[in-house]
Amino acid sequence: MTSPVPYIDPARQRSRIKPLKAWKHMQNLIADKEDTAQVFHIIEALNGNVKLNDFNRFMASENGPSLLAERSDLPTMLDNHGPLEELPEGTVGREYIKFMQSEGLSAAGLVAESEVLNSSTKSFDDDLSWYMNRGRDTHDLYHVLTGYGRDALGEAALLGYTHSQHGGLGISFIAFMGGMKIAQQAPRDAKVKAVIAEGRRNGKAAARIVDQDISALLREPIADARKRLNISEPVLYKRALEIFSEYELEPSPVAA
After folding, report:
1. Which of 9, 115, 156, 186 is such that its CA lies 20 to 30 A from the CA of 128?
2. Distance (Å, whole) CA 193 – CA 190
3. Using CA atoms, how far apart are residues 237 and 153, in angstroms rounded to an integer?
4. What does the alpha-carbon distance between residue 144 and residue 78 come to, in Å, rounded to a whole number?
5. Is there a domain that residue 20 lies in?
């Protein structure tokens, strides 16, 4: 297969880091912690050109060019649970649908949410947009493979993991701020800052999930996939959850 030449819309302008804009959205988030859209604005304001740099890294990977040429529709693949349910127990695909069903999630729902959040920004029909969507569509696979849950601490640790794999000052900042907020309210022996640091280390040591052939990955036994990708167990995160339980605290309310 001939490697495609990536198309980046020439109308795109180089992104600049906008600290004042990030500060404004941070103040909005502090004023209303339920306004989670502010998180995305903060990330956008601080990430600069990280998306383009990350796409170039993807294209330099072993699978990147062929994956771009295939342009698989990941939301359709991931929401088609029938074939995934036919996979052997313990495969990534089976674990994925268990996670999505237990959490009441769908890949299409994540697409719809992102479209609402990005409705005020200019969209481009180019290969960078395709790659950015790929990152969005694999988010819940990160949860499944890394072992980080959707509680506040799990999300913050996963942001640290994601930053190590993809970069972005905005993502790193949100992980840091989230960890600080949780640490203020959590038992000291939960070692929240160490949990976030562990997420960063694990992400740095592991192969990037976004670079993988997702169709093949779903058919792989999850233990084998974690070993192949060098994804370490989140030991400190699991210990923190045990400590929350010992104190009769739920992870999400601790972080609220």
Report:
1. 156
2. 9
3. 8
4. 13
5. no
In angstroms, the Cα distances linking 114 to 17, 48, 121, 146, 208 are 21, 19, 11, 22, 22
pLDDT at 114: 85
Buried residues in 144-173 as b, exposed as e (16+ CB within 10 A):
bbbbbbebbbbbbbbbbbbbbbbbbbbbbb
For the full predicted model, state whether its pTM sits above 0.85. Answer: yes
Q: How far is CA 163 from the centre of its chain?
A: 9
Residue at 1 is within a domain:
no
| The pair of three-digit structure tokens given for residue 219, joined into one six-digit string | 């058919």
Average pLDDT of the chain, as a whole number: 91
Q: Which long-range contacts (CB under 8 A, 24 or more apart) does 159-162 make?
A: 159/199, 160/196, 160/197, 160/199, 160/200, 160/203, 161/199, 161/200, 161/202, 161/203, 161/206, 162/203
The string of pLDDT tens digits covering residues 42-72 is 888 888 789 999 999 999 999 999 999 999 9
Residue whose structure tokens are 């062929």? 66
Q: What are phi and psi of 124, to 5 degrees?
A: -130, 140
Residue 140 falls inside a structural domain: yes
Question: What whole-number distance in Å separates Cα of residue 22 and Cα of residue 15?
Answer: 14
**Domain span at 192:** 48-255
Contact 171, 44 (CB under 8 A): no
Residue 93 reports pLDDT greater than 60: yes
From the list 205, 247, 248, the residue with the least C-alpha distance to 227 is 205
Q: What's the structural domain count of the chain?
A: 1
Q: Looking at the domain assignment, is residue 24 inside a domain?
A: no
Burial of 252 (0-12, 13-18, 19+ CB in 10 A): middle
- Under DSSP, the state recorded for 13 is -
